[in-house]
């Protein structure tokens, strides 16, 4: 027996929500990403420290997901120099790519 069912119409599609699970059209579009917990201070020769970093994808339906398949530029295994001033995080889903640039200090 299902007690928490919600129906809603979006464009020409009808969706059924049971609890937090959307059983209807699951297509959603990536609109942005955010990066939290990223270390921003380094010593020359360090590599990017992604421990504690969380990348979150936000979608056009208002939902969010934590993602782990993001990339960084410079790459995480690149030794940093004093000329490195930022790290670009990129995440691609369904041919849509979003980026966030974080300023770093390397000394």
Describe this structure in words.
This protein is an all-beta fold and 107 residues long. 7% of the residues are buried. A hairpin with a 4-residue loop joins strand 6 (54-59) and strand 7 (64-67). The protein contains no helices and eleven strands. Strands 1-2-3 form a three-stranded antiparallel β-sheet, with no helix packed on it. It has a three-stranded antiparallel β-sheet with strand order 4-6-7, with no helix packed on it. It is elongated, with a radius of gyration of 19 Å. The protein has strands spanning 5-10, 13-18, 21-22, 30-36, 41-42, 54-59, 64-67, 71-73, 86-93, 96-103, 105-106.
Biggest sheet details: 3 strands, antiparallel
Order of helices and strands: EEEEEEEEEEE
The coarse overall form would be elongated
Structural class: mainly beta
Low-pLDDT stretches are: 18-25
Strand order of the largest sheet: 1-2-3
Helix count equals 0
Cα distance spanning the termini: 62 Å
Roughly what fraction of the amino acids lie in strands? over 45%
The whole-number mean of residue pLDDT values reads 85
> Mind telling me the C-alpha Rg?
19 Å
């Amino acid at each position: 027996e299902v007690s928490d069912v919600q129906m809603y119409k979006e464009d020409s599609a009808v969706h059924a929500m049971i609890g937090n699970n959307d059983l209807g059209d699951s297509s959603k579009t990536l609109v942005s990403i955010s990066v939290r917990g990223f270390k921003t201070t380094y010593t020359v020769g360090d590599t990017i420290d992604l421990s504690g970093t969380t990348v979150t994808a936000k979608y056009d339906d208002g939902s969010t997901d934590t993602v782990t398949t993001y990339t960084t530029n410079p790459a995480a295994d690149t030794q940093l120099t004093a000329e490195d001033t930022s790290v670009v995080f990129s995440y691609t889903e369904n041919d849509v790519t979003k980026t966030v640039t974080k300023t770093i200090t390397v000394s």
